[in-house]
Amino acid sequence: MLLHNKLQKDYTQNAEGYQLKLPLNIETIIPEDDSVRLLSQFVEAMDLTDLYSTYERINSVSPRTLLKIVLYSYMNGDYSSRSMELNCKRDINFMFLLEGQSAPDHATFARFRSIHFAPCSKRILAEMSNTLFELGEVSGETIFIDGTKIEASANKYTFVWKKTVTKNQEKLLVKLADFVAECEQLYDIKIVYGNTIKMKYVKKLRKKLYALKESENVVFVHGIGKRKTPLQKSIETLEGYLSRFKEYNQKIHICGERNSYSKTDHDATFMRMKEDAMGNGQLKPAYNLQHGVDSEYITWLTIGPQPTDTTTLIPFLKDAEEHLKFKYTNITADAGYESEENYLFLEGNGQLSYIKPANYEISKTRKYRNDIGKIENMEYDEEADVYTCRNNQKLTVDHISHSKSKTGYVSEKTIYKCENCESCSYKKECIKGNNCKTPLEERTKTLQVAKTFLKYRQEDLKRILSEEGILFRINRSIQAEGSFGDLKQDMQFRRYLSKGTVNVLAESTLLAMARNINKLHNKIQTGKTGTHLFPIKSA
What we know:
It is a single chain. This protein is α+β, with helices and mostly antiparallel strands. It has helices at 35-44, 49-52, 63-75, 81-90, 92-98, 106-117, 121-134, 162-187, 199-215, 230-255, 313-323, 340-348, 366-369, 427-430, 451-465, 467-490, 501-526, and strands at 142-151, 159-161, 260-262, 269-272, 283-294, 297-304, 330-333, 352-355, 379-381, 386-388, 394-404, 410-418, 446-449. The strands form 3 sheets. Strands 1, 4, 5, 6, 7 and 8 form a 6-stranded mixed β-sheet that branches. Strands 9-10-11-12-13 form a 5-stranded antiparallel β-sheet. A two-stranded antiparallel sheet has the order 2-3. The chain is flat, with a radius of gyration of 33 Å.
């Protein structure tokens, strides 16, 4: 055979010298304990009515099969639609999931994730968690909650700060007021009655200027060498001001209650990420991902723009209760979730808090215990509602103040004031705050005490110091923080590939479901099914 006969596009025509031998059944090649078999069986048992309802017409490959392929790709740390298409043509495990169907196009996988899976991602995750509960794999009693920040698919240099926009808007309003006054003098028109410039006056001025243009037959000119009339300059200036004002309003509207957003992903908020190897804090557009872990499985998750975890707990628990068939009794979280509002919600919702107090670690230090200015180190008479300082002076109630949080919760603080701080030898140690403008000699010791918050903190502290509380705290650091370790290290997922809260939530859900299948597979193979908590190691 001549060599050039082999240089043709159809390679099957070159197999003249040998006979290719392949097994007739693909299934025989895949090991019996391969995770792809478990994935296929698990997804087959799930109720995917919500997913199917997003389709008007189903092609040759069913939504259930597409879900299997996407999940299996995520299980192996591959998140590209084009890789999924290629694997369906090359990888025997993907062919097993296809069940003889032709490989879908990469656009099919992209549309599946954004158009079909995203709207019902919460309900599908709930279906998986409910199935695991019925299998006895999750306890449904204790949930371990933690959060992490994952970088958004957005340009980190295209940020908009609400504070800056507000300042610029205020400056623009001053310029508008001066401009309106100038126009009233130039064109002998009266627009404003009173001292306040309102936007309706500016729009009225715009209307009158255009009417003046028509009455005087002023022709606008543009280009080099053309001289503009004062009226044209005024109208163009006004249009520029209005355009900027509209732009500022739009930016403030996009920010909402947030302090910032990214121009390339409006739902992403700029957050302080963890320090890099050089000790530099990174400010990047990101999302706050919350994981609720039970028995090493991610049973629930949420996505939010909050830079801290405090305000995420209540929405998380409400969302989980709405979708899951079971309700958690014990809520375990770290110090970032401690607040009076959270304590009250958990009590009202019939749930026990195992939240580590924010001062737990520092309260064990010698410096904290020897700080005479702390209320914990003062004597308190509950009946008289009086604190006694180191100098045996009484701190009595001066007044009660109220403050409102960003969520709208109103907390109450009791202000205690010392009866006599003059010539006190402990004054320098007791009264802190070097930036106060009032000299130390003239200052009086005051205490701000949130009685409700302290009451719940003491009750919570007793629970976390109990044997059960210690067990929960150990498991929280292993299970909740371990889920993020699996995500970022094992699955190599450190940056979202999609934009928008809905798509990011879908992406996070697929990751959680893929991890859950991997975790179930590992537990089955190691004979650890049905275990919920890691025991406390004895010395």
